[in-house]
Amino acid sequence: MIHVLFFAQLREQLQTDQVQVSIDTPCTVQDIQDWMLTQHPEWKDVIEGRPLMAAVNQNMVSSDATVNDSDEVAFFPPVTGG
Amino acid sequence: MADLIKVQEADFNIQDEYDAMRSDNQEDGAIVFFTGLVRDFNQGKDVTGLFLEHYPAMTEKALGKIVEEAKERWPINRVRLIHRVGQLYLSDQIVFVAVSSKHREAAFDACRFIMDYLKNRAPFWKKETTTQGDVWVEALEKDQTAMEKWDK
Question: Which of B10, B46, B112, B116 has the most C-beta neighbours closer than 10 Å?
Answer without folding.
Answer: B116
